[in-house]
Amino acid sequence: LSPRAKHPFVKVNCAALPDDLLESELFGHERGAFTGAVNERKGRFELADKGTIFLDEIGDMRLKTQAKILRVIQEQEFERVGGTRTIQTDIRIIVATNKDLQKLMEQEKFREDLFYRLSVITVHLPPLRERPTDILLLTEYFIEHYNTVYQKHIQGISEEVRWFFQSHTWPGNVRELKNCLERAVIFCQHEIIGVENLAAQYKEIITNPATRDYGEVLESLNREIILDALSKSKGVKKKAAELLN
Known about the structure:
The protein is an alpha/beta fold. About 45% of the residues lie in helices and about 10% in strands. The two termini are about 45 Å apart.
């Protein structure tokens, strides 16, 4: 809905590129700037002009490049690698990281001034284990998605798998759940995904009672019941408390 909607949306994974290559990727380079630079090349900031650039895994960016990013934010200008001409740019910057930037700043691995320049609006996404009500919604979505991909007609998951999904801590978050369900859909020959369709590491947790954390199960169930009561009371805590007796 923003005025930038019809302009470019450019994505860069900062962790996937070596430091020297990342700088060239972001700012572009002039012909002859380094060995192999046979042609002039526009960088991602130049390509994203009037639009949006998304810098994923910015916590992996080295300090030298961070300083140059800071200049782009403050001055809305930069030079290509090996160039002297200043290029103006008008972009919206969105960044993401799975690292604790506060700790990186304490270790002097992330610039404090860049952190405060970037954090105009911050969206904190809690790990999947802290939002158990999302798990079954995501499960339905991924089953529907992989039904289409693999031409299956799976309707859902068994009660045992449902219990496991809601009690598992999902250290790999949504990606882990997605991969788990993709495998299950591939191997499932019936309409319901059962324990037998899950990967070996999950079967071990389900079939071996010693590995079960009943405290986590109870906490998950309590949370789900409380959230349901809050939903029915439209967020009024007093009414939710009365519903829960």
